[in-house]
Amino acid sequence: MKQKSGIISDEEAVSTTLGYLFMSGIAMIFLAIVMVSCVNMFVDNPARVVMRTGFTDVGNEIGTKIVDIYIICPDNGTLTTDLTMPAEIGGEQYEVNAAIGSGQDQMIEVASDDGKVTMRMTINGIAESVSVTGSAMSGEWEHQICYNSS
Amino acid sequence: MAGIKSLLRSDDGQWIIISGLIVAIGLIILSVLLNQAMISGGKASEAVLDFPKSDIREFRWEIYRWTNQNVTKMNESTQIRNLTNQTKLLYGARGISVNFSVIEINATNQTANVTIFITDGTTTCNYRHEFIQCDEMGEG
User: Fold this and answer.
1) What is the percentage of chain B residues whose pLDDT exceeds 70?
2) Which of A23, A72, A84, B109 sits 20 to 30 Å CA-CA off B9?
């Protein structure tokens, strides 16, 4: 029988080294395409989840301190307490605003600078009897909550 | 011996190794996510523990109680000094600085006006003008 020749009839495939290089190359190209096209799924969504959790946590911390201050505040006097906030949560800077809404419904809002994530926490309606105002940017590490009866 | 040689040459376990790699990568991703969740989960409860609410209330109540018992002797500066020194030592041991002074007292009406100051370095509370009606014990 006459032996066939040419690339079509060649059944020997490639060497182990070349096969390894081909497979690695294909895998790397695949990974690069996936990383570029699925940034939203792999980076943005987890960052958003981390931001939501972190913002809720910071808002609750501030809310808890404000309510605690309200409970023990002097009729005639002052009360100040230091507050530390992480500079970034999920790679984003954020702003805390304590004067969202009014009266019973007043809330603390923590919003990312890019505006993608905003969380709001209640302060148990204490703004009905005590005025709560102020805002803070996360760029500064140390902050202060001040109460003044006058 | 031949068994071990054939085992060393065997390359049939690729899928097992690949699945092992996938599981390892999955575990790393999960541990990183869990770590982030643990870091961000403690600030609210930390705020409750850090704030010296009970210390402030306790010191204020202590001043109320003491004034109630000693309103007739409060003109004597030694009495005030004794209380101030005692409370300073007591709270100083816990890293809290306190101060107390009398603005005015009325032994006839059993009333007193005092200032109360307490700080733990992070939180500072200043009662500038605290009116105490001595027969209303238990307030604060």
Assistant:
1) 82
2) A23
The DSSP element (H or E) to which A108 belongs, if any, is strand A107-112
Mean pLDDT per 10-residue section of chain A, whose length is 150 residues:
65 80 92 82 82 90 92 92 88 91 90 92 89 91 90
The mean of the pLDDT values for chain A is: 87
A77·B122 Cβ contact <8 A: no
Q: How much is the pLDDT for B42?
A: 64
Q: Is the pLDDT of residue B11 over 80?
A: no
Here the ipTM equals 0.70
| Residue A9: strand, helix, or coil | coil
Compute the nearest-CA separation of A74 from chain B (Å).
6
A95 touches chain B (CB under 8 A): no
Rounded alpha-carbon distances, angstroms, from residue B122 to A71, A81, A143, B41, B68: 18, 6, 11, 22, 30
A31 within a domain of the structure (yes/no): no
Instruction: For chain A, give the percent of residues with pLDDT over 90.
Output: 41
- Suggest the residue from A50, A61, A94 to mutate for an interface test with chain B (most B CBs closer than 10 A): A61
Evaluate whether residue A92 is within a structural domain. Answer: yes
What size, in residues, is chain A?
150
A73 in a structural domain: yes
Q: How many domains does chain A have?
A: 1
What residue numbers bound the domain in which A76 lies? Answer: 47-148
Edge-to-edge strand ranges of the sheet holding A135-137: A118-122, A107-112, A94-100, A135-137
